[in-house]
Structure formats: structure tokens, C-alpha cells
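S., here's the first fold you wanted:
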Amino acid sequence: MSEGRPELVLQRRPFGSWLLGPADQSTTLLRFRLQVLMTTFSIVTNLIGAAVVFVLAVFVLPGPPLVDELQLAEAIVIPLYFLFAVAIGCIWSTRLTRHVTRWVDEERPATRKEQLATLQLPLRLTLIEVLLWSVAGVIFTAMTLALQPENALRVAATVFDGMIITCTISYLLTEFALRPVAARALADSSPPRRVLAAGLKARIVIFWAVGSGVPVAGLMLAAIVALFEKDVSTTRLSVVILALGIVAIGNGWLLTVLSARSVVAPVRSVRNALTLIGEGELNIRIPVFDGTELGSLQSGFNQMAEGLRERERIRDVFGRYVGPEVVQEALASDRLGGEDRFVAVLFVDLIGSTELAAEHPPAEVVQLLNRFFTIVVDEVDQQGGFVNKFAGDAALAIFGAPAELPDAAGSALRAARTLAARLDDELPEVTAGIGVTAGIVVAGTVGDVRRHEYTVIGDPVNEAARLSELAKSTPGRLIASMTAVSEAVPTEAQNWHSSDQVTVRGRAAPTHLAIPR
């Protein structure tokens, strides 16, 4: 697991589309991309909406044909108003977006108030389009009332339906374009509660109503008009139904796709991140860019990943203090007590540590001890044992507990020989006595319910400590008991030969010594 601040999941499409760019894009590129997308979406959606409304009102919906004067007026007024509305809408929307997201240019985190304003920005931008469409509806209805009053209701209803559908699509596209900005606003936090007037469930219902309900209502309105219009032919009514059906299908499909994508993108980002979590990569954080419950889901994933990182860090630190095997033992069972185990014990103790502390500064002594313990831990780990404790300038290593070893004695003897050789080569300024033995001990957790320690207790531990003292006065600085040699596999036992029998301090029975060949 990598260390440091969690990085964003920089997959190919962190916000659900390549159009939105990478998560770490510069502020300048973000501004340019946002301006291009929002301007393009606004022009295209409103142009298509205006064209559909014009075709439906003039050529499709039942009713008296528009008089020439009205058709000519609309042919002139509609393009002029469209250009005017697009210009006003783009300028107004750009200024509002700049004002609300000024914290982006200042390259600072958004305040809680700015987060709320940023997440509400798509709705405010959509309200600008609603206003411009409403003005268009008033102008065209008034113009129709002046030139052909009997068609005023048809024109007003068509413009109103077009406004609802176009502005809803525009809202979804605007929310899509603002995802990178929303992600920056919500960095290292969760979405504010009740950001929108409606949550995810209500939004889906609204999109269904606009995508299906409004077009169907248009069909019903056409049917009502046809009932009161005596001169509507079957062919004309068929054309009306076909045209409105095409609009209903196309609009419903588009809104469903856009709405589904707005839901799928946050879920997919969580799914991709969960895949990385499953592969063992915990140092990740996904961008939170949704203001509904889906944004809370993204934020919840980040909190979960942070908790997993913290747990892994604690486990790692804990393992450095007591050893990975002890961590596994503690996680499996945290009860006090122990069990009889056959283990091999290695005890290593520096010679002349008192004089060393008196003649050198404390910092230098600590540095030397760290180098010494690094070699000890490395060799013990290489042979499958673990260092149970550091006692000043000495270390106690256990082979066969808590994890069992097929050749505990042989592993301890092999570690002792390689350790003695490395200390001579890599740390010649100090010497250490090394003692190795094997036997039955009680291995387990001792202490109090508030403070545990994993240790081994038994005569072999004391014997290994006494052998290390004895080794300090021997040429090779390394002594083992024949008990350990006899328990080792032949390939390791042949590296040792029998020596004297000595009764070490604190023991009644003599110890048969062995030294390396």
C-alpha cells in the first residue's frame, strides 16, 4: 500500500465521460472546457427545441392554418429572438457561473456556503432559460392574439411544452458539464443535506413526467382540439399523432438516457474504486460530484476507504512493535493464557554496552543499537522466527511460536550462525554473545485485560540468556545447547559439534554445550 495523502482514482473517465477531462486538470483548462460545453449544450438544445416548437405549431397541430401575416412575422421574429436569447443567456450564465465558482480561480477550498451555491448552480442556470422561454411564450402568444386569436392557445401550449422539455434536458446537460467543479467543491467533504429541492427519487419522477407525461399530454391536447375542430381530416389527425409520437419517443429516450447516465456515473466510480480496494490498493479517493444521495454514496466510500487505511496503518504499526505473527494471534484470540509449545530460543546480548554508553553520546548509542537490531531482526525473519522483545541492548527471538515451524531448532541455529557472521562483517565496532537452546515453554498472552503482551515463559528462555553470557567469553561468541542440535535436521546439525558440559547460573541441571564447526 502506498503512503501519503490518498490520490484520486484517475481512471480514464473519472467523471463518467472523456468530455469532462481528467480529475487533475488545471484551472485554466477546466474553465475553457466548461465554457465550451455549456455554450454548446445551450445553443444546441434551445435550437432543437425552438425548431420542434415551430414545426409543431405551424405544420402539425390541428387548427386553422396560420395566416400569411402571422407566418411572415414568426419567420422574422423567431430567428431574431433566438439570437437575442442565446446571447443574453450565454452572457448571463457565464457571469453567474464565474461569480458562484470564483473560489476555483482563487485555488482554495470552497466554503460550506459556496458548496451549496455550486451544487445549486445547474438549477439557477436552468431558471435563466425558463425566463427566456417564458418571454418568448408571451411575445409569440401576444403576436398570435393580435393577428389570429383562434390560434393563440395552440401557440401558447406548444411553447410551454417546448420550454419544459428543453429546459429539463438543458438542466441535465448543465449538471453533467459542472461535475468537475462540483467535485472540487466537495473535495474532502460530503454533500450538504437538502442541496436540491428534490432528492434522487423525486428527480426520477420529474424526469419521467417531463419525458413521457408532457408529450402524452400534448397528444391528449391534440385529440381535444380535433374534437372541437369539425374540418380536421383523418389524414391530418394521423399526421398529428405520428409527429407527436415521434417527439414523445425521441424526447423520452433522450431524457431517460441522460437521467440514467447521471445515476450510473457516480455508481460506476464507486464500483471501479471497490475493484481497486479488492486488489489491495487502499490509498484511493474518488471524486464526489453529485449533490443527491449518490454523492453521499461516493462520500461514504471515501470514508470507508479512509477507515480501511487507518486500520491497516494501526495494524502495520502494531506489527512493528510485536511482530506480524503476534498481530495475527491477537486478532484470532485476545484471551489471556497460553499453551505448551516446543520452541527454539535465541538470545543475543551486546558486550560492553555500559562502557559504550559512557564513552559515546546517547544519540550515537541509539544509532548503533538500531543498526545492531536491524541485523538481528533481518536474520531472525529470514529463518521464520520473530523477535519477541528488545531488552536494552539484548534481543530475545523465538522460533516455533506463535507460528509453528517444521524445524524450529534448525532455523534458530542457522539464524545464530549467520547472525554471528554478519555482526563481525557489518558491525565490527561491537561484539555480542549469542546463545541458542530449545525445549518446552508456555507461549501465550500475559498481563491484564487492559494491557496484553505475548511472551514465552520457561526454562529454555533462561537457559538461552545464560548461554549468551557464557558466549561472551568464548572465541566464536556463539554457543548452543546439544538439545537444540539434536532436534535440528541433519543438514544443520552437522555444522555443530559437541563441547563441554556446564551448569549455568540459575539452573540445577548441567547443559551440554555445542559450538559451530
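And the second, which I think is the more interesting of the pair:
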Amino acid sequence: MTYQTHIAQLTNLIADQNGTWDAISPESVARMRLQNRFTTGLDIARYTAAIMRKDMAAYDADPAHYTQSLGCWHGFIAQQKMISIKKHFGTTDRRYLYLSGWMVAAMRSEFGPLPDQSMHEKTSVPALIEELYTFLRQADARELGMMFRDVDAARAAGNAIEEQRLLNAIENHQTHVVPIIADIDAGFGNAEATYLLARKMIEAGACALQIENQVSDEKQCGHQDGKVTVPHEDFLAKVRACRYAFLELGVEDGIIVTRTDSLGAGLTKQIAVSKEAGDLGDQYNSYLDCEEIDPATAQNGDVILNRDGKLLRPKRLPSNLFQFRAGTGEDRCVMDCIASLQNGADLLWIETEKPHIEQIAGMVDRIRKVVPNAKLVYNNSPSFNWTLNFRQQVFDAWSAAGQDVSAYDRARLMSVDYDGTTLADEADERIRTFQADSAKRAGIFHHLITLPTYHTAALSTDNLAKEYFGDAGMLGYVKGVQRKEIREGIACVKHQNMSGSDLGDDHKEYFAGEAALKAGGAHNTMNQFAA
């Protein structure tokens, strides 16, 4: 309903109460309704799933319409990110949130900092989703509240044109609530555990769940060693569990992102069940590192496979894990992706060891021969040394083209000595255009950075600590933080307003009228920032 429709409907509702609700203002209630557009997490999940589906279709028509997100470990970080996006770009279109399991483990567990191994409380994941959307909804309420105050000021001044302009802006207000891609790790257990957690995450507002094909109890960060994958049937059962959760809750457009770690995972905990030659289980097992044996030499406890009339013994490690043949990672990634898309996945995630467009594109080209509209979510990871990787890529390209690279030491290209050189400038340009270039060439629909706000929080705190506790003293804060906030229009410079003080004053006036004791009077020091 529109603002005016809400007011009319509420006026009639209040009039029907035989005078007992006459102290309730229809316009005040209408304002509160608009400031609380989403009453449940499922409202958010349904709304944002439709946005993602529309964006996916737009990308299929033109890969220039790729989408982006940053990982956020706290509701305030997500809120400030979306406020900044609206301030700088005027719209939140194609900008999402990412919830990183790594950051939940490292920053939000009651155990304290943990590695990314699914040891944190699974309930902390839906709790963070709910927190993120609580802060985004508050950003809506704050922004609309300021617009309502401006309407009242225009009315008091008799400026009907400005009042109408503001009312039009209210009717066309764009919410800060955007889609979130939420990391469910490897499901935190079996398929039933995955379903239960998926349901909680969706109820909290998640429209897209990212799940990986590692063993739950052996799960590792995608950029660490020791990753262990599971056979496809085990993984696809968890994919179906996520879909069941979406459908049960009425989020029929829910998105499932399936991540394969096979490029860096050389181990499996299980040998897949195979019912006939060439099925998924047989394909999975075909990549095992095996040796042909004579039945007479079989040892006690050997696991033996029969393939093409030969008896093969997979190499089993002391950890009781089985090893894949070296060099099979890309083939296994392609097989994983095709199997996922053919069994209900919507988007793919291939965890790579470096940001190299042609490496990614080589796998996507093979996938698209089977599933033409295959699309990726890609981790622009802080685990990559972007500067070194791209300088080395330029070095290699120049070398292959016969260009003189004698002025550069490939192993030392990270050095500040090379800053400002022609090679460094070309590398920086490739980094700048990486997302657009890979969206066009390698099928990447969504670009995210998993851990950016973890690093920015550390960097900004280091800068402040160095200045404040050093010779700069208070000037370290004023010059390095507050003066920049004021001059760059950072919303939280008025931190009382940001935390909801003005919203509370509005409510006090609704509830108590002239008797309201409000915090935003003449003696509020936030008035120093009015200019």
C-alpha cells in the first residue's frame, strides 16, 4: 500500500473503535508501517530471492550486469555498507551481502577465534543473518524518519511543492534490504542437520545458501590444505535438503550455490557407491589413485575395486583417507559442477588457488557444453596476493610475447621497488577490470570478497592506535576519523541518530504527545554536526 492508502485505511479502522482509539494518529501508524516494511525474515527471503532471479536473468542477457557483495561480520558493517552504496551510487541494484563462515568462526563464536573448520556454533550463522537484516531494516526506518521530519517542516513552512516532492520520494523509497548469500559450510552434519540449519537460515532472511562438497567433520577453509571431498550422492542429498527447506517455507525462488573444493582437495573419505559403469559413483572412483593387484597378493583389510576386469587397490593413507591421482582436480571440478546443476543447484562456486581468468574460463567452457547457462559465484579472496599474482601474470604474458622483462625479478614483484613501473601499472589495470572481464569471459555472475571488513577493521584500528597513543594524541582521532567523517558525509558521525535516538523521539511523541521527554533538544551535542 502507498503512504496515503495506509493513512486512509487506518483512519477508517480507528473510526470503527467507538472513540477508544481516537488518540492514535493514522499518519503516525502509516509511518511506522512504512519504516517496518518487512515484518518477518521470510518476507525478506521471498523479496530478495525474486531480486536475485531477476538479476540472474539480466546477466544471462548481458554479462555486463554482474553483481557484487562484500562479506560482513556485524549488522553495523552491513548497514554502513548499504548506506554508503545508496549515498555514492543512488541505488542498491546488483549489490548484495555475503555472510562468510570464516568470519563467523573467527569473530562471532562463543569459543573465541576459531579456524574455518565448522567448529563454531551452527546457530551463530542464522543469528548473524537476523542481525544483518535488523540493522538494514533500521537503516530504512532512520532514512524514512528523516524524510517524515522534512515533510512536517515543509508543511509547517507552507511549502506545498516541497511537501509533495518529499511524499513522492517516500513512495519511491528504495530499501536497504538486499539479497544475502549465506555460507552453510558443508552442512554441519548429515542431510537432516543441513535441512534443519537451512530452515533456520531461511527463516532469518537468507534467500541464497552456499554449500560445499567437503566432509563436514573434516571441513577446511577453501584456501588451506587438507581438504577432503565427499561422493556426489552424499553432497546432492544435502543440496536436496536445502531445496526442501526453501519449498517448505514457501520461498520457491530460493537459490542454492554449490561450491566445489575439488581443485585443491586431493583426498576423499569414502569410496562412492557405484551401481553401473559410468554412473556418478563410478566416475568419482575413476579418479582415485590406484594400483593393479593380483588377488594372491591382496592383504588383510584391503579395499579392492573391480574396473574393466582388473582388480585395483586404492591408495589409503594412515589417516584412513583415500587419495586422488595428481592433476585430476580440474576434471573433478567440472564433473562436480555439472552434477550439481543437473540436480537442483542454481549457481556454482569453484574455489581456485589464484585469480586467473583463463583458468576459471577453461572449466566454465567445459561445463557450458553440457549446461549452457551455467553461472558462477566467485570468491575474490583476500587469501590471494592480488598484487603479486597479477604482476606475475603480466610478466608471464610479456615474456611469452617476447617482450623484454630483464628489468624485473619475477619472484620479487611484490616489492615496493616495482611500484609505478609500466608492469605494475598494467597489473593494477587488470585488477581493476578483473570483475568485468571475468564476468564476460568466465561466466561469473556474482563477485564477492569474503573477508574485506575483517581486514579493514584491523587496518583502521591500527592507524588510529598508532596516532592516538603516539605524539598526535587526540588529533589522531580528530584528523584521522572525525574530520573525514564530517567532510565525507559519513552517516554515523551523528552516532546518536545512527543508533536510533531520533526514531525513539518520534515514537515518544506518537505515544505521549506534548508530554514526551525527548533526547534531541537544543542541548543535544549532535547538533554541532548539523552543518
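Why I say that: The two ends are 35 Å apart (CA to CA). The mean pLDDT is 94.

Talk tomorrow,
H.
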